[in-house]
Structures are given as C-alpha cells and as structure tokens.
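Loading example: each entry is read as two labelled lines plus one structure line.
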Amino acid sequence: MEKTRPSPTRYPEHNPDGAQPEGAEGSEPLDQLPGSLYDPGTLPPKDLDPSASLDQFSPYGSEGLSPTPDNISAGREAADNLNRTQGAEKLRRSDIIRSNIDSITTEVVSGISKSIALNKNRLSIPKTIILGMRFNSAKRKHNRKVTKANNAKAAAEQARSEVGNGHIFNGKHKANRLERKSNKLQGKADSYKQNTLDGRESRVNDHSSMLKNRLNHADKVRNTHENIHTKKIEMYRDRKSLAESRKEMRHMSKELRRSGASKAEANRTMSEISLENRLKIGAAGCRIEAAAREHRNNQKATRRLEKEAAGVSKKLIETRESLDDENEIYTDTAQRLEETNNLKADMVAEQSSLINERDKLDPDDPEYTTKLVGVDRQLEKLAKAIAYSEKQSEILSSKLSDLTESIAYLEGQVAEQKSKKAAANNDVLAAELVTLKSGRGLNDLETDQRQIINDSRRPQAQAQPSPQPIPARPTTPAEVPANPVSAEEQPTLF
Amino acid sequence: MPILTKSFLQDIGLELDDETFAALADHTDSTLHERVISEITDELSPEQAAELASLQNADDDILQLWLVDNVPDLQEIVADEIDILLGEIAENSDAIQG
C-alpha cells in the first residue's frame, strides 16, 4: 500500500533550494510561528559550526543568530525526527521489512498452531449394533417358532376335521399327535421368548440407557473444561502480553541508554527490575509444567481404566450369552424328554389295550390264529418302540443333568463378572474425578501465571530511572508532541 | 506467508467471507509493516537515524546489511509485533464478527 509523505506544515523551510514552498503564500510569517526556533533574537552567530543535522535547518544559516541550549536541543531533536522520518520512508519503499516479516511469520504462526489439542469422546457404537442384531435374530427365531406352532395347530385342526370313527390308528390318533405337537411347539416358543428374547431386548434397552448416560456425562466433562476458542483466545492474549512486556523492556533499556547510562548500567537496572518478575514467572512456569505432567498421567490412567472396564463388560456380555444358549438347550432338551416320556406313555397304553384285545380273542373264531399273530406282531413293535423311548429318555435325562451343572457354573461367572464390572466402573469414575481436579488445578495455575505477567508490566513502568526528561517518540514531523508518547498511541488496528 | 490465516480465524472462532477476509488480511499486513518500521526507527540512535536517512538511494541489499548491523533485535521486534497484532485480533474477535 502506497503511503504519501506527510506534507510539511510546521517546517516550511524543508526545501534545500530555498525556493518558497507551495502553499506557503498567505501562511503565518516565520518569525511569528510559535517556539524559539524562529525568534530573531536567538539565531546562532556566523562562526558557529553547527552539526550536520543542524545544516538542514535554514534558520541556523548565516544570519548571525545566537544559539541557546534550548535552541540547540530542539534543533537536534527536530533534525533527528526528520532523519527518522526519512529513514522510515526509505524502509516503506523497500521490501526489506516485508521479507524480514515473511521469514519470521512462518515460525511464529506455526508455533502457535501446535499448542492446543482437542479431546474426543468415545462411544461404543459397534456394541450397539451387535446387540441390536442379536435381538433382531432372536425375534426372527421366536417368530419362526410361533409360525411352526401355528402351522401344527392348523394341521391338527385339519386332521381332526377329517377324522372318522374307528380304530386308534386312524386320523383321530394323528390329530391328537398333531395337537400335542402344536402345544409343545407353542411351549417352546413361549419358553424361548421368556429365556432369550426378553433378555436380549432388556440388554438392548440397558445399553441404550448406558449410552445416554455416557453422553450426558461426556457433555458435563466437556462443559467443565473451557470452550476451546476461549482457551485459544486466552493463549493469544498471553502471547500479546509477553510481547508487550518485551517491547516495554526494550524501550526502557533504550531510554536508559539515551539518558546517559552505560549499556551495562542500563542492562543491570533492567535486570534488577525484571529479575524478580522473571523469577516469579519462571517459578509459575515450573509449577504449570509439573501440574500438566500430573494431568497427563491422570488422563492416561483414566483411559486405561476405561479400557479395562470395557473389557470386563464385554466378557460379561459373552458369559451372559453363553448362559442364554445353555438355558435354551436345556429347555429344548427338557421338552424333548417330556415328549419322549409322553410318547412312551401312549405306547404303553396302546400295549395294554392290545394285550386286552388279545385276551378277548375267541379261540373258536376261524380267524383266531391270524388275528393273534397280527396282535403279537404289533405288540412286538410296540415293545421295541418302548425300549427305544426308554433309552432316549435316559440319554436326555443325563444331558439335562450336565446342562444343569453348566448353567450353575455360568450363573456363578455372571455374578462374579457383574461385581467386577461395578468395581471397574467405580474406578473409572474415581479416575475421571481426579483428572477433572488436576485439569482445574492446571487452569488455576495458568491463570495465576497470567496475573503475574500482567502485574510484572505495571511495576516496570513505574520504576524506570530517568535522570533526564524522556524525549518524545514522534511518528511524523507534523505530529511532534510536547509530551512523551506512550505505546498505546501508536497506530492501532481497531 | 501471510500473518492472517484461515486456521487462525478458526482457532478464535471467527468466520468471515472471502472478501472480508482479504480486506482484513491486507489491513493486518500493512498495520504490521507500519508498526515494525516505527519500532525500528525508534530503536535507532540519532546517529544511526542520520545514517539511515542518507541511504535513500541505496539498494535493498545494502539496506539489509545496514539493518542487520544496526538493529540486532530486528527478529525479536518483528516476532513481538506479530504476537501483539494477533492478540489484538483475538481479543476483538467479537467486534470483527459482529
């Protein structure tokens, strides 16, 4: 951006050729301008050898004016201001400053951007999906069982409608069997619902409410820590305070040197003023470092405990699922045993009926032998079927016994893992509380350090030794103030 | 590299359209430029200021060498002014957004 040179209004003689500058016509006569510079009684003598900067001031030419200490000091000051203005103009026209800014900006800006890290909340989304899938699978299985039961019932009703009167081996027997089968299938469906489906639905609901609680807790933890933008703004504010402190110290060091103190004395004075503050800031920094280290360790411990608690939960879920499966098998086996026993009872009843029928056979009947052989054959088949049923019954009973032991073991495991899970959750909560406290402690220490930094600036401004009046820091010739300019009066952004 | 970047604005929660961002970036660069020049000229002794004034027609290379010799705190000055400027923008982010 091009900047025009401020027009000289107070020093219209800034024309080395001596020609009347533009706009000077009708302006105030030189000898009536304020200040002793144009006082005809204070011009320097002819034989005065002014300094190089004084040569640029035409009032001190060869007019035979007498210099005074005030005149010389003011003249030197004005000449110095002019040099600074010209120097600043040269720097503006060149690209040197911009190239220096570019080379430093990358380092400064990239250093700032690495300072803040974000926390992320972890949610067990895959577990939700798995539980949902298992629940849906159980629901489909239950529906299939119900459908099977209904189909058997329909078949039983169909068979019953076709039953005629007569022998036990006609459709009536089939209808009874189908009806028993239908009842057993319905019982299986109800038992499955009670032992498996309801349990899985309950676990899905528990998990859902657990996720909601975790989300609420995560929101609370997040709200307890400060908003990330506020933190970053505070960080930039701190950097600004530190930079202003360094700038202030540079100015004070320069002013001490200008006041005649040697560089060593100036540095010693600055050291004395700032040593105590630097020590305080350094001590605060050490405390912050230790607190930050402790906070990081607490966070690591919390994450480790959360991982362990998640592992315990997973194991508990798996054990519960195994228990459900064993219960399901037990139920099936028990029903099969009951069915086998019922079938055996039917066959025993049939056997008794056949024996009675054989006893009632008339030996005088010409078909006595044929009928007797037929009944005996049926009795033989029944005896074999009854023996098979008994064997099946024994096997199923033994299986039931094994399943009972297995279920008891798994129930014990579930109880043990439940208590482990509760203990793990308590540990996680305690660790989260400790982490929260250490985080708050760290914030408090950072606030204290900021306060120390802010306080360190005020005593320095009051304690500067200044044997001579501090010269003004003008920005342009038109703005040479009578009083010293403070840092706040330089061009501001807002 | 420009002083004002979009990542810095995101850090302090500031969202600006491209036109406003470009205007603010230009204004920031020119303000920083002026402040650094003001600090440098203020750091100089009267003799150094006279010397700088005499380099009106000098090349940038000569000027750079002169700055390195006579302004040893140049890097610190630039870094401090950058920090102060970014801090001011961060502090006034609400006013800028509004």
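The two ends of chain B are 27 Å apart (CA to CA).
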